Each structure stands twice: as structure tokens, then as C-alpha cells.
């Protein structure tokens, strides 16, 4: 039995705290206190040997600066996103606080609500420290099949980029463009995220695995995805603020689209879908954008 502290009691942190409780001693903490029997102070949670970080990518940099003290914990980062303000990946953001040997990143297709119902799920623990990845893979319950990989950057790119493609897929659905267009967008999205990942040294095979195609197909084809629902909102002509207010939860694809835009300003990369998603978030007509993407 391992002592696990989950930080961030949103949808995903709560679902993972539930899942990890099958085999471990789990406590949870969050910015907003919750009335839960295992809810503890941040100080208590940080004393656990295993820490699960469920704070969104856009907020974690400030959070780490203000709250985190490393004292040998093993850290599993479960967020999926790239920081909009800087274009930094999560492994870069965490590096000044946690040594590479102590950190792992979770990827794979996993809606929190299904994990919370103990439905079968398969995930990947990614770390440059293989022993640590195996250690974290062991904490998962019987209904979650856990794999390990050393391709941290591939997992990060795939997990973050698929949220942007899911926004595009939601727009496609919202505009009623049909299943042919959706399949084209999703498969071109997979190629686009792979091309981006390869430029950062990711492994090609990661993009056809659970954290790549697996998570992309899940998120880009279901209204259960918050990012897909952002796309539906954009297709209806709503702006970002209205959409986020209705959603009431995080949609990492928005910040990540801005991050990809920031990155593409400095690097010569061809990111057509991400570019259109960024432009639609900035007010471009979705009909125009999808026409630009899907017609000759
Ligand atoms: N939901 C899902 O199915 C999955 C989500 N993910 C990823 O997990 C991450 C979290 O998503 P999810 O839990 O669903 O999102 P939610 O919107 O449900 O929750 C967001 C969480 O972030 C915390 N938070 C927000 N801003 C801050 C801040 N400034 N400082 C500290 N804490 C903050 C909130 O704390 P509080 O509520 O206490 O204010 C809350 O715990 C995202 O990166 C998402 O992409 C990955 C796989 C599946
Ligand atoms: O990452 C997820 C599933 O793997 C959750 O996606 P959404 O944030 O779009 O709901």
C-alpha cells in the first residue's frame, strides 16, 4: 500500500483519487476545500511519497512557484496542455522543481466520468526513469490497464495537441459537415500532431498508441469531451468567454491553441489545423476556417 496525495480535486483529480483508493492510502487536496473524508491540507498532501498533480497546465507554473517544496516525492503529472503564455511544455515547467528521475506523465484515453464508474480504461505512465514509471503503473486499480513508456515528450505533445484537434472536430460536427469531413480532420490532425512531436524528438510510435490516436479518437468524437464542446459552441457563433462560462470546467485545447500559435511564430512548423483553431478562437468565422481546411 502506497501513500498518495492528489492535488486538484476537479473532475480528473477526483476520479483518479477514487481509482487509486482500490490499492492505496489516498488523500486529496485542492484550492477550494471539499467536504470529503480524505480531504487534507496541502501541507499534509505534500508529505505523501507519491504525488498526483491534477492542476491544469495554464495555472501550474504559478502554483508551483507559490506552493511546491520538493522533498523527494515521486510526482505523476496528469494534466494535458502547453502553457499559453510561454509555449512551455509541462516537463519544462516542472523541471526546476522536480528532478527528471522523480517525475512521470500520464497519457491515454480516459474520460474522468467513466473512470469514476470503474469502467475499463487503459493508460500509459511516461517517464525517463523506467523504474519510476513501473512504480506508478502499479498504483492503478484492476479496471485500469497501465502501460509504461519513456517517451515523455511524445506523450505530452499528443495529450495536449489532441485537445486542439478535438475543438476542430466539435466545430465540424456543429457545422453539420458530416462524418467524411470529421474523419478527414481527425486523421489529418493525427499527422499534424505527429509532425509537431517529431520536431521535438518524440517517437513516431507514440502517436499510434493509446496516448496518441487512442486519446485523439476518444476526445475528437464525443460530446463528453469539454474541448469538443468548445468546438460546438464556436460553431454556434459563441465567443470564448460565453463558452467557458457555460462549460464551468477546464478546456486545455484553448490555451494549447494559443501556445501552438506562440511556438509557430518562432519555429518553422506547418500546423494548419492548430492555426485555424487559434484564428477561430480569435474571431474568424468557423465556416471560413473549415472551408480553408477542407476544400482545395
Ligand atoms: N476530466 C477528464 O476527463 C480528464 C482531464 N485531464 C486533464 O486534467 C487536468 C485537470 O482537468 P479536470 O480535473 O478535468 O478539470 P476541472 O475543471 O474539473 O478542475 C480543475 C482543477 O484545477 C484546480 N485549479 C484551477 N485553477 C487553479 C489554480 N489557479 N490554482 C490551483 N488549482 C487550480 C481546481 O481547483 P478547485 O476546484 O479546488 O478550485 C480544480 O481542482 C487538465 O489538464 C485536463 O486536460 C486529463 C485526462 C482526463
Ligand atoms: O483528456 C481527456 C480524455 O482523455 C478529457 O478530454 P476533455 O478535457 O476534452 O474532456
Task: Please characterize this protein's 3D structure.
50% of the residues lie in helices and 12% in strands. It has 296 residues and is of the alpha/beta class. It folds into 2 domains: 148 residues, 3-Layer(aba) Sandwich (Rossmann fold), CATH 3.40.50; 142 residues, N-(1-d-carboxylethyl)-l-norvaline Dehydrogenase, domain 2, CATH 1.10.1040. Helix 4 links the parallel strand 4 and strand 5. Helix 7 packs antiparallel against helix 8, helix 12 crosses helix 13 and helix 13 packs antiparallel against helix 14. The longest helix is centred in the middle third of the chain and has 23 residues. The termini are far apart. The mean pLDDT is 97. The structure holds NADPH dihydro-nicotinamide-adenine-dinucleotide phosphate (NDP) and 1,3-dihydroxyacetonephosphate. This is Glycerol-3-phosphate dehydrogenase [NAD(P)+]. It is found in: Cytoplasm.
Defining traits:
single chain, 296 residues, alpha/beta, Rossmann fold, N-(1-d-carboxylethyl)-l-norvaline Dehydrogenase, domain 2, 2 domains, 14 helices, 7 strands, 50% helix, globular, binds NADPH dihydro-nicotinamide-adenine-dinucleotide phosphate, binds 1,3-dihydroxyacetonephosphate, oxidoreductase
Amino acid at each position: 500500500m502506497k501513500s498518495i496525495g492528489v492535488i486538484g480535486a476537479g473532475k480528473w483529480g477526483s476520479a483518479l483519487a477514487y481509482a487509486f483508493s482500490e490499492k492505496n492510502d489516498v488523500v486529496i487536496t485542492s484550492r477550494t476545500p471539499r467536504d470529503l473524508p480524505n480531504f487534507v491540507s496541502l501541507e499534509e498532501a505534500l508529505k505523501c511519497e507519491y504525488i498526483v498533480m491534477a492542476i491544469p497546465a495554464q495555472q501550474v507554473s504559478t502554483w508551483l512557484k507559490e506552493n511546491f517544496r520538493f522533498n523527494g516525492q515521486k510526482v505523476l503529472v496528469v494534466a494535458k496542455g502547453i502553457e499559453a503564455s510561454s509555449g512551455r511544455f509541462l516537463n519544462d515547467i516542472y523541471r526546476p522543481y522536480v528532478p527528471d528521475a522523480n517525475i512521470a506523465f500520464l497519457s491515454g484515453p480516459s474520460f474522468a466520468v467513466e473512470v469514476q464508474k470503474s469502467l475499463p480504461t487503459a493508460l500509459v505512465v511516461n517517464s525517463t526513469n523506467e523504474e519510476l514509471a513501473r512504480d506508478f503503473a502499479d498504483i492503478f486499480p484492476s479496471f485500469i490497464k497501465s502501460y509504461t513508456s519513456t517517451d515523455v515528450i511524445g506523450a505530452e505533445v499528443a495529450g495536449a495537441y489532441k485537445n486542439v484537434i478535438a475543438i476542430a472536430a466539435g466545430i465540424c460536427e456543429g457545422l453539420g459537415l458530416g462524418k467524411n469531413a470529421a474523419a478527414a480532420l481527425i486523421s489529418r490532425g493525427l499527422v499534424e500532431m505527429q509532425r509537431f512531436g517529431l520536431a521535438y524528438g518524440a517517437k513516431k510510435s507514440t502517436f499510434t498508441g493509446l496516448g496518441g490516436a487512442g486519446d485523439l479518437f476518444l476526445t475528437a468524437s464525443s460530446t463528453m469531451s469539454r474541448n469538443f464542446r468548445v468546438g460546438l459552441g464556436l460553431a454556434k457563433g459563441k465567443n470564448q468567454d460565453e463558452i467557458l462560462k457555460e462549460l464551468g470546467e477546464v478546456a486545455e485545447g484553448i490555451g494549447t491553441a494559443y501556445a501552438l500559435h506562440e511556438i509557430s511564430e518562432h519555429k518553422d512548423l506547418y500546423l494548419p489545423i492548430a492555426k485555424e483553431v487559434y484564428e477561430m478562437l480569435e474571431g474568424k468565422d468557423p465556416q471560413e476556417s473549415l472551408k480553408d481546411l477542407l476544400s482545395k
